[in-house]
Structure prediction request, 676 residues.
Amino acid sequence: MKNLGDPVSILKGVGEKTAVSLNKLGINTIMDLLTYFPRRYDDLSLKNLNQAVDGQKVTVKGIVATNPVLSYFGRHRSRLSFRIKINDDIFNVTFFNQPWLKKQIELEKEVIVFGSFDRVKNKILGMKILNSSQENSFNSVYPSIKEIRQNTIKKLILQAYQEYQEVIPELIPDKLINKYRLEPFKKTIHNMHFPKNQVEAQKALRTAKFDEFFIFSMKMQILKNKQRKKDKQAEIAFNSDFVKKFIHRLTFKLTDAQKKATDEILADLKSPYPMNRLLQGDVGSGKTVVAAACVAATVSAGKQAAIMAPTEILAEQHANNFARVFSGLGINIGLLTGSTSQAARKELLPRIANGEINFIVGTHALFQNDIQYHDLGLAIIDEQHRFGVNQRRAFRVKGDHTNVLAMTATPIPRTLAITMYGDMDVSIIDQLPAGRKPVKTTWISAAKTNSAVGFVNKQLKLGHQAYVVTPLIEESDAVDMKNAIAIHDRFKAIFEPKYKVGLLHGQMTSEQKEDVMVAFKNNEFQILVATTVIEVGVDVANANTMVIFDADHFGLSQLHQLRGRVGRSSDQSYCILIADPTNKIGKQRMKAISTSTNGFFLSQKDLELRGQGDVTGSKQSGMPDFKVGDPIGDLNILSVATQEAAAVVSDNNWQSQPQNVQLAQYLRINQKILTD
Ligand code: ADP
Ligand code: MG
Prediction:
């Protein structure tokens, strides 16, 4: 029997090599292939240039009017230029990096060019040469990689559709198809790949988005119900007086938002069901102290708690901070990271296993095989989006009945968070501690770097400290280090011996990093030159100024995180962004970050400016990847699909109802969910 779960290798023309290439694109099964949707559609039908607007994609037919000229610059870069005559007008045509096209251009012969039209220069930037059979078509364009060509992908999709169309199920109950005027799933798949025109493609896309969100929400709801039902022994019978005592000993009062989040988490701990809760709050909103209150509660019930952080610096800082707030409360803290010495490990592991250590702080080391807990009641994951699903799971299953608290500084609105993290409950700290002043942010051009240096000097005179963040050239610690060293030298030449300048970069050992961090905290350095390794980490209240070089190379959310390192006291703090963005989007981003300190606004802007469907954009902000849906841009579709999925699942017998049979079967067989 044909099944959408069949491997793609079942198709004609898919040998081992092609199968490997397809896997790279995330395509393993026929279903993956059928839902490998186009990135865009090119309308190749002929356009009248008089009506074309500047920058528009056009297809034009003309007569080649000059001999083509091919010139190379660099090893792999080339330019092919010629003129064409359309009616009585002459246009310049240029193709970059497609030297092989020269063969197809012959003087006085007809040619059909697809490209974008530059009205000002009367020029066409060529993308393709078409043959006459293509000129009227509406063409799907797929994301592809070197190993596999567009045409191959297209042919395979067509083959898969032809052979499997009769087994494409209907996933959405009829009632919903009618209610939201959606299209059947089979038609959607057909029209996503082979639309006749833009209207058909748009209609299909709307349904494809709904379907994708609906299936995602179904999975989340089912998962949540399953987890809830399985375990009823996760209660943490804590001592409220002990928790109150911990809170009263703090040097500050909790904000209302912190209190509310703490109450929500404590209520979960008390319940017999295992907690699975996400704590969201902007940088500096004070998530850690909320986590600490919950640790205190867990320990008071005789169970262990552990917090896992993505970097050693952060784990070490957590260990120090927790040691301070817990001092005198009789909570034994252990620190376990990749660089914990063998001797220290040997001493620590038995004490974790016998329960003598109540609270373990660490990195990925916390879920390795050789770590045994006595009774892990609460597992906290800091910066949860920096960990993979399997890592989070590996940590959770270290206890028999573990409650999970995940923390993130990625600010997304409550409605979206509830949907995206449908298998978790969500608490949000949407308030900064009183007395915090927003970081004053200015954007200057590199030509004005001296004024930034002068400003830093002024702040140092007032007794403050400053961060200088060095350019992010590429994802390579080695190159970043070179930059950092150069800027470090430059600042040393300017400021030493009066002020001392420290250096922190990713190539240093974690011991070296910690030494620098501690020295900066103790004001032994007044300036810290650093790469993004400070993005999460060092908390130095006296540092009130940050200068960021080449700020336009960073994402908005990343800049916001970096900036969160200052503004950690009641003093006014400052962030100076040095950037000369060359395009409009770069300028918009610099404007956004210098006028807003709202993390939610910035992450939304980040997604908008990166463009819809940009996978890296949504990855950065810690959201699951969708193929066609954009959780921000399509928030309406997302919330409707979520509500409807919840309504379906709320009926205990939903799987056996006729309108849901195909859906349930699909989830069971293709999504491997609902198996028990
Ligand atoms: P987050 O992890 O959410 O970015 P932290 O928990 O690191 O924030 O808190 C940032 C700083 O604010 C810490 O130095 C912390 O001690 C302090 N802090 C937390 N809550 C409060 C509060 N209610 N009032 C004053 N300071 C606070
Ligand atoms: Mg934090």
About this structure: The chain has a mean pLDDT of 88.
